[in-house]
Amino acid sequence: MLRMPGIESRSVVQSARSLFVLSLAVGMLVGCGSVGNLATNPTTTTTTTTTLPLADSWQFSLVPASSAVPLVDDSIEAVLHTTTSEIVGTAHTIGFQYGNADPCYNVEQNIPLSGTIDAGGNISVASAPVAGQVLTFSGILASDGASISSGDYTFKGGCADGQRGLLTGLKFKPVSGTYSGMLTSSITSFGVSADLTQSSGATGFFGVDGTVTYASPTCSKEFTITASQLAGRFIQLFLAAKDGMRTTVYGSVDSQATQIHLEDDDGVCGGGGEAVLNRE
């Protein structure tokens, strides 16, 4: 399952050592229309296909109106396509659950979103029913399309029924370039570098292609990214070296994609610990 440092669902996260690939359906809207001529003429069919613009990575920050049933996590990560009049995409909850249920959303579940944007930038979005509940939210899209302010959210149905609060949204820039830093644990510290390029990935998540290199005193190893998930602040990379050594790192990206926090619980190359990588 998906993992995020500092979130109470670590036990949920660490049970998912095996790679999973989430495949969600997001990408294009298709409209079809046919025109029939007189019987003496051939029948022609005209099909118009509208392709949504490229998706963007978003994070929605949530502030509950009541602390009676607090959120363990305070954000929802999403991959969204936006036009001047509509929003279509898929959201994910990373370590997200309420105190009275385990959990409201499973981290492997996709949350399809769709909504509208009016001429004033006012958005209105609703999810498809997932785990017996529907998420709705609204807000104001900035003129540059990079943030959402003055929003609110509500859950109806399921274990989160009636939960509501304030919502803001922030669009994240693509992860791309060379990142470097140190991986530190209680017993060692060594250099880590990564050459990363954001890609389309599995539908509903962005992918990340490239390599990650550990420069440990006990083993210098280059890993290839074999699978990945990226949405909003969340990033997870599954790594494999030519000799068969494998590890999984997970963590968070800042909105400008200039810094990545990663955690490696597997302890390969005598390490294990946390790394902060900055884009060069």
3D structure, described in words:
The protein has 280 residues and is mainly beta. Helices cover 2% and strands 53% of the residues. The chain has one helix at residues 10-14, and strands spanning 28-35, 44-51, 56-64, 75-82, 86-92, 111-117, 122-127, 134-141, 147-156, 164-172, 176-184, 189-199, 207-215, 220-231, 234-240, 246-253, 259-264, 273-279. The strands form 3 sheets. Strands 3-4-5-6-7-8-9-10 form an 8-stranded antiparallel beta barrel. It has an 8-stranded antiparallel beta barrel with strand order 11-12-13-14-15-16-17-18. Strands 1-2 form a two-stranded antiparallel ribbon.
Short description:
It is built from one helix and 18 strands. The protein is mostly beta strands.
Sum up the structure in keywords:
Lipocalin; 8-stranded antiparallel beta barrel; 280 residues; mainly beta
CATH class of the largest domain: Mainly Beta
**Global shape:** elongated
Flag low-confidence runs.
4-50, 96-102
How does the major sheet shape up? Answer: 8 strands, antiparallel, barrel
In order across it, which strands form the biggest sheet?
A: 3-4-5-6-7-8-9-10
Give the number of domains. 2
Q: How large, in whole angstroms, is the Cα Rg?
A: 21 Å
Task: Tally the beta strands.
Answer: 18
DSSP helix count?
A: 1
Name the CATH architecture of the largest domain.
Beta Barrel
Query: Under CATH, the topology of the largest domain is which?
Result: Lipocalin
Helix content: under 10%
Q: Name the helix and strand elements from N-terminus to C-terminus, one letter apiece.
A: HEEEEEEEEEEEEEEEEEE
Counting helices, strands and paired strands, the structural category is mainly beta
Distance between the termini: 30 Å
Assign the CATH superfamily of the largest domain: Avidin-like
pLDDT average, as an integer? 79
Determine the strand fraction and express it as a percent band. over 45%
